[in-house]
Specification:
about 240 residues, mainly alpha
Length: about 240
């Protein structure tokens, strides 16, 4: 019974959806408020978490091209062998004749896979690119040859005061605070929030798992980093730190 009450209460966690009927009868809501428009960015912790299926130029391509190719006497700015400079995104794409989405028609890919060893780069006597690096260049070009990067979500120093509370304050307290919090569920302080966290309801709600509807209700899911931060805090025992 307590679990059912928590589900009903948490469905109003988004500040934008305070004024809706309780979730009853197969979770049908009358006249839900559309919050999918161009409202303000409410991401508390910025960043672009790394997607394992994507190749990132700044993180993966540039480091090994710089180390293997953009060296004195080869493809650094000073030497520019054959007019090719491989020390930045602009130079790699332009002088390396990169054709986004078309690795086979990209000069840089043709050169590192040339069947003629005399023409293949890096030249004989230098450390060749690994099969993994060659595949990475292929995938990067096939994905559009973007000047992209990602950052891992830092979960090493998660605290309630500096990490968790700001998320809850922005995403939930618009409804779940004050004298009459929605569905009688207050998320104003550590005691309120830790109770829901330890029960498992908080994480299940923000991930839409274990039978819980996805929260915040009628809004976009929390960014992956914010979910990871909340999960880390819960796994550490939801401390008041």
């Amino acid at each position: 019974m307590n679990r059912i009450w928590i589900i009903v209460a948490l469905v109003v966690c988004a500040a934008q959806a305070c004024k809706h009927d309780p979730i009853l009868d197969e979770l049908i809501v009358e006249d839900p408020i559309d919050t999918t428009g161009g409202g303000p960015d409410t991401t508390v912790f910025q960043g672009n978490p790394c997607d394992p299926d994507s190749v990132y130029f700044v993180n993966e391509i540039l480091p090994f091209l710089t180390a293997s190719c953009a060296q004195p006497g080869c493809h650094d700015a000073a030497t520019a062998e054959d007019g090719v400079v491989l020390d930045s995104y602009f130079n790699i794409v332009t002088t390396g004749d990169v054709e986004p989405f078309d690795p086979a028609d990209s000069e840089i890919y043709e050169t590192i896979t040339d069947s003629d060893l005399d023409d293949r780069m890096p030249p004989a006597g230098e450390d060749p690119l690994t099969a993994e690096q060659i595949q990475m260049i292929y995938d990067w070009i096939a994905q559009g040859a973007q000047d992209n990067s990602c950052s891992s979500c830092d979960t090493t120093e998660v605290t309630f005061a500096q990490t968790i509370y700001p998320i809850i304050e922005l995403k939930c307290q618009g409804c779940h605070s004050g004298a009459q919090p929605s569905s009688g569920l207050s998320l104003e302080d550590y005691g309120d929030i830790s109770t829901i966290a330890i029960s498992g309801a908080l994480y299940s709600s923000i991930t839409g798992s274990n039978g819980y509807p996805l929260m915040p209700y009628n809004s976009n899911a929390l960014p992956a980093c914010e979910i990871d931060l909340i999960q880390t805090w819960i796994l550490e025992g939801a401390p008041d730190n």
